[in-house]
Amino acid sequence: MASRFAMMRNPIFANLVRDWGLNVRFIGVDHDQRIFDFRKLLTDSLLSKLITALDQRSSMERRHSNEQDGNATLDLLFSALSQGMLTMLETRRVSWPEHLARSHRLEPNVSGTLFDRGSRFSDFTRALHQALRNRIIDAAFYGRALRAFDLREESIEYRLSQLIHSTLDPLVVERLKASTVGQHLGCYNWMALEPNRSAQRHYMLQRLGCFAQFFCDALLTRQDITAEVDATASVWPQGGSDSGLARLAQAVDSGQDRLVIQALANRFAVEPNTIRNLWRISGTEHSSAALGTPNHWHLQKILLRLDGLSINAWPQTAEQWLLFKESSD
């Protein structure tokens, strides 16, 4: 970590190091059991302060080397990160909802997991591959090393997952586990933010799991919507206006399926029957569950393609849905 932070002084490597730094997860859970992802608080100025602090620590280590120095350096690193981030949060309290976690899943070894090994240990695996190619190690040793690596990481990821689980609302977590979207952190926040609407939002995720990421991105921080918008109105605004989002949020929480279908159709500029057909096939073994939780722009492309097909031409198996999703990218 120290060497990579120090590379920020080099203009050639600065952007690469910053990209690496933003892959580090800083997760917080508040007293209301909401999950925050604080990566956006990892600013250039904070990283620069870390470089200075680590340089000072390295000088001290050279003068007073002992077996505790490694732990002291890590303590210094996380102390500087937490102090800088907490200071920014304290001065910008109104912007806390912007840092609510909206993506990633809490399960290890799944697509979109919070514990992405590729961004953490790319140097290690690359060195192993190189050593195998150069015949420094043989295939048997290479396999043992990878297995040991996997076992170690699975153990750590499981402990971290359990630690986060212990701070969350157990009812919301159980509902997520029973849904098609899995333990999606954005969906957790969306349901936990208003417990009295949690059941209805869970129902929406069961019926339209492929909209999960869209619901989180579009509706998670819009909890200040007032009753001035009539969710029972027969005319819905087109496109992405705030008024449209307000109506959509109220439709989703209204418990009226027809309103949700109409609101989503307007939002994505497709026929209501396209949303209605997705609604009907959810939960079947050949349903759109294979679509996963695409982001907004990808979901838009998928829906527009489906809108131009008759229901008989829609994919029929999970494999066909997966190919359809990939071809819509």
Primary descriptors:
two-stranded antiparallel ribbon; 15 helices; 329 residues; mainly alpha
Sequence-ordered SSE layout with sheet pairings:
Blueprint: H1 2-6, H2 14-21, E1 27-29, E2 35-37, H3 44-63, H4 69-91, H5 122-133, H6 139-165, H7 170-177, H8 185-192, H9 198-207, H10 212-219, H11 242-254, H12 257-268, H13 272-281, H14 296-307, H15 318-327
Antiparallel strand pairs: 1-2
Tell me briefly what this model is.
Helices cover 57% and strands 2% of the residues. It has 329 residues and is an all-alpha fold. Strands 1-2 form a two-stranded antiparallel ribbon.
Protein described:
With 329 residues, this protein is mainly alpha-helical. Helix content is 57%, strand content 2%. The protein contains 15 helices and 2 strands. Strands 1-2 form a two-stranded antiparallel ribbon. It starts with a helix and ends with a helix. Mean pLDDT is 79; it is low at 223-241.
Number of strands: 2
What percent of the residues sit in helical stretches (DSSP H or I)?
Answer: 55-70%
Count of separate DSSP helical elements:
15
Please state the CA-atom Rg, rounded to the nearest Å.
23 Å
List the secondary-structure elements in sequence, H or E. HHEEHHHHHHHHHHHHH
Shape: globular
Termini separation comes to 35 Å
Overall pLDDT, averaged? 79
Q: What low-confidence regions span 5 or more consecutive residues with pLDDT below 50?
A: 223-241
Q: What is the spatial order of strands in the main beta sheet?
A: 1-2
Q: Return the structural class.
A: mainly alpha
Largest sheet: 2 strands, antiparallel
